[in-house]
Request: fold
Amino acid sequence: MNKEILTVVELVSNEKSIPRKKIFEALEIAIATATKKKYNQDIDVRVNINQKTGDFDTFRRWLVVERVVQPTLEITLEAARFEDSDVELGHYIECQIRSIQFDRIATQTAKQVIFQKVREAERDVVVQQFSKKNGEILSGTVKKISKDSVIFEVGHNAEAMIVKEKMLPREIFRINDRIKGVLQEIRRDISRGPQLIVDRTSDKMLTELFRMEVPEIYERIVEIKVVVRDPGIRSKIAVFTNDKRVDPVGACVGIRGSRVQAVSNELCGERIDVILWNENLTQFTINAMAPAEVSSIIVDEERYTVDVTVEEKNLAQAIGRNGQNVKLASKLLKDHQDDDRWELNIMTDKGISHKNQNFEKNLNISKNPIN
Reply:
């Protein structure tokens, strides 16, 4: 019995949470690699380990081909059938050879291959565990901080990374801080570094935070119809329900604003307007302009424009700081219509009056009747 091999398998399997079968496969490849180095030849070697005893057998093999190009690796079909009359093209002919003793060089080679295969197995495990969590929120503890990214542990021997471009403006993380982000991508083809890439700036981040915070959304009583964001600054979310007993806006805001405030706190104080979805474009635009009050609204479906009038005292609120309110309301309008051609125009009562005067002047209407 080869106790050393069995010990290695148990230790690695328990420490890395990798199935024993995977470890045995890695060991077989490792021993085969060490064998080829020992013989110092370009040969193909297969190793079979008895998973109960740890003992192993070693075989040299040749691929059966029509025409031999690499004599140390290939054999013709005609020659192969002297060994096995049932062999076909693409099969292998094998003969058992003496298994190597693990001297220093063989052991070192085996270790390198084992570590490589273990890393590959670990990455396979990560892919399996997180493949169904794409678009969901991952949370963990910050492990490493660099100039361009933050790496955090998310459990199951997995790490996630968020690059600077996917962080909110001005947010700063420290080692051991708790962090959340939406799983955006799972990288399968990288040799090192985190495979899980997360994002804190996407609309999905806001949606998932509300799903975690608001039971009515989690239970699908309230539906999130549209989300638009200026990440870390301001956002608007339109909600709807078919249950007349439920106030969808109130459910999302919570008692004394507790629910929406919890979401805002996670996003560095991002201001969040929760509005009611309406199929009617006019009413939805009025809702989208909140908290600003709308005096009147004109929808021109031929020109794809919506002209919103507000009182002079409400103009600053309607536009918002750096134009945020009107910009987000405009995005909601385009999402509502599923058409980027739509434009939202804001003007005051005085502005619309001046516009009408110019319109009449351009018509060049004469006070005297035409004879």
Remarks:
- The two ends are 120 Å apart (CA to CA).
- The longest helix spans residues 104-130.
- Residues 34 and 107 are 8 Å apart (CA to CA).
